[in-house]
Amino acid sequence: MAELVVALDFPDAGRALGMARTLAGAAPWIKVGLELFTAEGPALVRELKAMDFKLFLDLKFMDIPNTVQGAARSAARLGVDMVNIHALGGERMARAAMAGCVEGTPEGRERPLLLAVTILTSMAAGELPVPGAPGPSEMALDLAGKAKQYGLDGVVCSGLEVAAVKASCGAGFIGLTPGIRPASSGGDDQRRVVTPAQAVRNGADYLVVGRPVIGSASPREAALAIIGEMRSV
After folding, report:
1. How far is CA 16 from the centre of its chain?
2. Secondary structure (DSSP) of 94-105
């Protein structure tokens, strides 16, 4: 059964914690990204974990292997449930990240899931800054195959690509899909988007939703409506 991950895309702890309290008991997973983590750091992650959420730390690590290993180790020590790196960092970096996740996980706990970001869902065809680059979907599928070879748990990819990823890498290889927009949503900076039902139908395991929930007049109801759509497939 696919699970909803609500992105707490806020600039400060006050608003993030207020939204988390609103969503408690409705959405099982929350995501802390670059803006919020840079502003509030590990202390906020600990507060959110104390509220019994499962937490995706979305920092997209990409650096030399030793640095990424240390970052992944620190994330695991925080008790996060999922963390990610960029697939473009290559095999040595990916394997170092996995080693860090294992090293940082306290005894008796499961290590965080480690996913690789393929191609950002904000990027459309022709926007990859590489001459002669393949289209986003083709490149995402190639990077997913590499992430599986590197021993990672899955990838972050568009809902447009997750079916092909599953067919190529196996049903057990996790597909987390951002760029989820209910049919009633307006336009924004995302490009390769799908509805919640489409993402689940295509095989997504986790759906990341931010603005359609946290920007709603009734965030809890919006989250429950999306979960209802996911379960209707």
Report:
1. 17
2. HHHHHHHHHHHS
Instruction: Give the active site residues.
Output: 60
Task: Count CB-CB contacts under 10 A for residue 230.
Answer: 21
* Nearest-angstrom CA–CA distance, 60 and 62: 6
C-alpha 143: how far from chain center: 16
Please write the tens of the pLDDT for every residue from 80-112.
999 999 999 999 999 999 999 999 999 999 999
Per-domain residue ranges of the chain: 3-231
Q: 3-231 has which CATH code?
A: 3.20.20.70
Name residues whose C-beta falls within 8 Å of residue 67's C-beta, 6 or more positions apart in sequence. none
Q: Which residues contact 193 (CB under 8 A, 6 or more apart)?
A: 121, 158, 159, 179, 180, 181
How many C-beta atoms surround the C-beta of residue 30 within 10 A? 23
Given a cut of 50, the residues of the chain with pLDDT beneath it are 188-190
Neighbours of 228 (CB within 10 A): 10
